[in-house]
Predict the structure of Large ribosomal subunit protein uL22.
Amino acid sequence: MEARAIAKYVRISPLKVNYICAEVRGKQVDEALSILKFTPKRGAKELYKVLNSAVANAENNLNLNRDDLIVKVAYANDGPTMKRFHPKAKGMAYPILKRSSHIGIVVAERE
């Protein structure tokens, strides 16, 4: 059995979050939470919230034991990109891409 949680439209680049996802993928849930708690990146805070939500879903909805849960899948996909423009010399415009991401975590019981 596996439980999942997804945070959509988070205003951080998926590239930045995926580096942190790689750190917690395959880890036991409590170990992953402690890694995220002490990681000094903004994406770690968002991942911490999503992981807590996935664990709560597993405990409350599927009656799984927290001690047996591992982070099976952790990902950050592209969300919509806000396009803005910054004026440059000679009347030109320079595009600014404000990226967002959809962060998801799947926790499952250890085999």
